[in-house]
Structure formats: C-alpha cells, structure tokens
From TrEMBL:
<comment type="similarity">
    <text>Belongs to the DnaJ family.</text>
</comment>
<protein>
    <recommendedName>
        <fullName>Chaperone protein DnaJ</fullName>
    </recommendedName>
</protein>
<keyword id="KW-0677">Repeat</keyword>
<dbReference type="InterPro" id="IPR001305">
    <property type="entry name" value="HSP_DnaJ_Cys-rich_dom"/>
</dbReference>
<dbReference type="InterPro" id="IPR001623">
    <property type="entry name" value="DnaJ_domain"/>
</dbReference>
<feature type="binding site">
    <location>
        <position position="151"/>
    </location>
    <ligand>
        <name>Zn(2+) 1</name>
    </ligand>
</feature>
<keyword id="KW-0143">Chaperone</keyword>
<feature type="binding site">
    <location>
        <position position="191"/>
    </location>
    <ligand>
        <name>Zn(2+) 2</name>
    </ligand>
</feature>
<dbReference type="InterPro" id="IPR002939">
    <property type="entry name" value="DnaJ_C"/>
</dbReference>
<dbReference type="Pfam" id="PF00684">
    <property type="entry name" value="DnaJ_CXXCXGXG"/>
</dbReference>
<keyword id="KW-0346">Stress response</keyword>
<feature type="repeat" description="CXXCXGXG motif">
    <location>
        <begin position="148"/>
        <end position="155"/>
    </location>
</feature>
<feature type="binding site">
    <location>
        <position position="194"/>
    </location>
    <ligand>
        <name>Zn(2+) 2</name>
    </ligand>
</feature>
<feature type="binding site">
    <location>
        <position position="205"/>
    </location>
    <ligand>
        <name>Zn(2+) 1</name>
    </ligand>
</feature>
<feature type="binding site">
    <location>
        <position position="148"/>
    </location>
    <ligand>
        <name>Zn(2+) 1</name>
    </ligand>
</feature>
<dbReference type="Pfam" id="PF01556">
    <property type="entry name" value="DnaJ_C"/>
</dbReference>
<dbReference type="InterPro" id="IPR036410">
    <property type="entry name" value="HSP_DnaJ_Cys-rich_dom_sf"/>
</dbReference>
Length: 375
C-alpha cells in the first residue's frame, strides 16, 4: 500500500503551501542521489518528489485529499518539462545550486538583469602619531567607477536604448532540461548573448564603450575621529564603485595605520614615554618641562625618586574613540643618568659625602656608592 504523501513529507494534512515547500527542500537536500549514497536513498528521493508534486498544486492536492492516490494516479510522475512546473524548478535550483555531477555544475543567480549595487573599495591610509590622537580632516585621492554622464549608465549611445535579450527574454539565464530515470532536472546557466544582464546594447556609448561606467580619480576630504589606532576602519558611504543598471554605488572603507613616533608610544588610550634625570635631580628632586602630545608640561620629580619610577600625567593621553571627552593618561618612566666619569671637584665632594655615609671609596668605590644610593 502506498505511503501517505503527507507522512512522506512529514507535514500535517492542514499544512500550508510554505510548510510543504520547506519540508520538501529539507528532505530533497538530504536524499538527493548526488549527496546520499546510502541504499534506498534514490527510491526515497523519488517518493519525496512525487509527494511534493501532488501536494504543491492545489488541484491535485484537492483530488488526493478526496480520493487518495487513485485520484491522482493519472498525473505525471516527474517526466514533464520543468518549465511547466513553475515553483518546483525554482525550488530545485535553490536547493542544489552548487552541486555538480548529475546536476551539470553549479547554477547561477536567478536573475541578473536588475539593478546591481556597486563594489566596495578599500584604501589604506597612514597617519602621524598626533593625527591619530587628535583626528582632523584629511585629503585623500581615490580611483573608482562612476556612472557615465553621457549615457546615464545605460551603456547605450544617446538617443538609443538597450533592448531586451531575445535569447533569455530578459532573465539573464538560459535553462536546459535533462530527462533521467529519476525525473527531469533543469540546468541554469548565464545567457551567452547578454552575459547575464538581460539586455543587449546594439549602439554602444562612445564615452564608456557600453559599460555604463568610467574610471575616475577624485579627491575627497574625510574626517578622522580622535583616538583612532592601527586597524581602525572608516566607512565612507557611496564612494565605492558605481552600481550597474541604476543600482546604488558601493562604499569606500579606509583602513588606518599609525606611523611610529620617536618619542611617544601608545598602550590603549595611554601615552608612554621616558624622561632622563641626573642622579642629583633624583636625590634632591626638581621641576622639569616634559613633552606631551598637548605640548610642554611641567613635571615635579620628588626627592629620592628611584630608577624606573612611573610618573602619571592625568588626562594627557589619547581620547577614547567615540567619546573624545574621556582621555587616557601620559605615563613617564624616570631614567636616572649615573655618570661614568666625574671632574675632580665633583669627585672631592662625592668622597666627602661617602665618608659621611660611611661608604668605602677608591677605585670602583664611587660606582658602589652611587649604586647604594639607588638601591
């Protein structure tokens, strides 16, 4: 006894057309002979196709619901032309696009003759350290496709118009039906006459040679937000390549790269640098002018500052990207310059200080004394 078609597709008897279509897609993908090599997969695939063929058409489904399999026994079982099956061919294409073998290779997009969005473009841009910190306006040069002004993007000579391709009737595709013991399969390929556009240009525009676009180099002024870093990506809307057949242009993506600075480094939103002081300045303390990204700032070195001490200048770092009011800090590492040679007057004073400290002096003694100072 033949299995119930609703049971084969795994749907309820009151399932709507969309539920039946989804169930068919799922099962057909699973049991197609090119995918499933298990015993019985081919028979299951034919059974699924038969069930969908009946239940997808309102008239045959109504006869099946009323009279059972006998009511639809006269209907074709898959050897009819796919062009007469409407949605079935479309479903079949969407399921098996990308499969080769019995399908004759991957299928193409269904229709290419409508408006198509232009391609996105990428530009790499280098910034100086302070440009990345504070942002600003930057002028760039790009080369992209723009819609031909002569033909307004149609590709046809002014006064003429493209005509609908007679080979594919404007669909941009041609179909070929192959009959097999398992049913009729359709293969979809790009129309060779119009190359998938659906239109044929008989008199090409002299300016763009029928392409509808021209390569143009132009200058743009873009705004760099404060706080950008290596790898930050800026999107410049509609500055990519022009679209085809009236489609919108793509976007331009600017990738930012920051040049290294001789004095400053960056750690997130903090700026890092070093400052060198003499051993006397470290011992006695001092006030020094140091460089920051904002310019010179006075820094207090406390008496007795040790080597590699990190001093912090708050809110002198990098603005937070997207919130420039919030800034990081400037962190300065203190390096202490210990001399390798001293003049006689300096040595005399240091030896007196060593005696006060009770440190031995002599050859190598000064270095030992200074080393003790900064333990």
């Amino acid at each position: 006894m033949a299995r119930d078609y609703y049971e084969i597709l795994g749907v309820a008897r009151d399932a709507d057309k969309e539920e039946i279509k989804q169930a068919y897609r799922r099962l057909a993908r699973k049991y197609h002979p090119d995918v499933n090599k298990e015993p019985g997969a081919e028979e299951r695939f034919k059974e699924i196709n038969r069930a969908y063929e009946v239940l997808s058409e309102p008239e045959t489904r109504a006869r099946y619901d009323r009279f059972g399999p006998e009511g639809v026994s006269g209907a074709g079982v898959g050897f009819q032309d796919m062009s007469d099956m409407g949605g079935f061919a479309d479903i079949f294409e969407s399921i098996f696009s990308g499969f080769a073998g019995g399908m004759g290779g991957p299928t193409q997009q269904r229709r290419r003759g409508g408006p198509a969005r232009g391609d996105d473009l990428r530009l790499d841009l280098k910034l100086d350290f302070r440009e990345a910190v504070f942002g600003g306006e930057k002028e760039i040069r790009i080369s992209h496709l723009e819609t031909c002004e002569t033909c307004s993007g149609s590709g046809a000579k002014p006064g003429t118009r493209p005509r609908t391709c007679s080979t594919c009737s404007g669909s941009g595709q041609v179909r070929r039906v192959t009959r097999t013991p398992f049913g009729s399969f359709t293969q979809v390929s790009t129309c060779p006459t119009c190359n998938g556009t659906g239109m044929v240009i008989e008199d090409k525009c002299d300016t763009c040679d029928g392409k509808g676009t021209n390569q143009v180099t132009k200058k743009l002024k873009i705004t760099i937000p404060p706080g950008v870093d290596n790898g930050t990506r800026l999107r410049i809307s509609q500055e990519g390549d022009a679209g085809q057949r009236g489609g919108p242009p793509g976007d331009l993506y600017v990738y930012l790269f920051v040049n290294e600075d001789e004095e400053f480094q960056r750690d997130g939103i903090n700026v890092i640098s070093e400052i060198k002081v003499s051993y006397l300045q470290a011992i006695l303390g001092c006030r020094l002018e140091v460089n920051t990204v904002d310019g010179p700032v006075e820094l207090i070195i406390p008496a007795g500052t040790q080597p590699n001490t990190v001093m912090k200048l708050e809110n002198r770092g990098v603005p937070r990207l997207g919130n420039p009011v919030s800034r990081g800090d400037h962190l300065l590492t203190v390096l202490i310059d210990i001399p390798t040679k001293v003049i006689p007057e300096e040595r005399e004073l240091l030896e007196k200080l060593a005696k006060i400290k009770g440190d031995r002096t002599g050859k190598g003694g000064l270095e030992g004394f200074l080393g003790n100072l900064f333990k």
